[in-house]
């Protein structure tokens, strides 16, 4: 069984290009959340997110270290 994970980064103009890392975010349980919390702890508020279909740019090292491993 694998956990659903979103690939998200902050949109251009919200942060500088060097801060637009690809974060790993658990899929929210509902759509009432005003912010996503990446595994590294980064908050990504509504309207700031760019949802990615595949990894793009530099990965967030903190997210890579903290994302749960898939279970068989």
Question: Mind explaining what this structure looks like?
Answer:
By secondary structure, the chain is mainly beta. It has one helix and five strands; from the N terminus they run E-E-E-E-E-H. It has a three-stranded antiparallel β-sheet with strand order 2-1-5, with no helix packed on it. It has a two-stranded antiparallel sheet with strand order 3-4. It is globular.
Q: What's the number of helices?
A: 1
Multimerization status = single chain
Query: Radius of gyration in whole Å, from Cα?
Result: 12 Å
Order of helices and strands: EEEEEH
Largest sheet: 3 strands, antiparallel
Beta-strand level of the residues, as a percent range?
Answer: 25-35%
Question: What's the helix and strand layout?
Answer:
Blueprint: E1 5-10, E2 23-26, E3 35-37, E4 43-45, E5 49-52, H1 61-66
Antiparallel strand pairs: 1-2, 1-5, 3-4
How is this structure best summarized?
It is built from 1 helix and 5 strands; from the N terminus they run βββββα.
Features:
8% helix, 72 residues, 5 strands, two-stranded antiparallel ribbon
């Amino acid at each position: 069984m694998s956990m659903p994970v979103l690939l998200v980064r902050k949109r251009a103009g919200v942060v500088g290009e060097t801060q637009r890392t690809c974060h790993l975010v658990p899929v929210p349980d509902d759509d009432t959340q005003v912010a996503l919390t990446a595994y590294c702890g980064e908050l990504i508020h509504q309207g700031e997110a760019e949802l990615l279909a595949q990894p793009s740019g530099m990965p967030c090292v903190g997210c890579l270290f903290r994302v749960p491993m898939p279970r068989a």
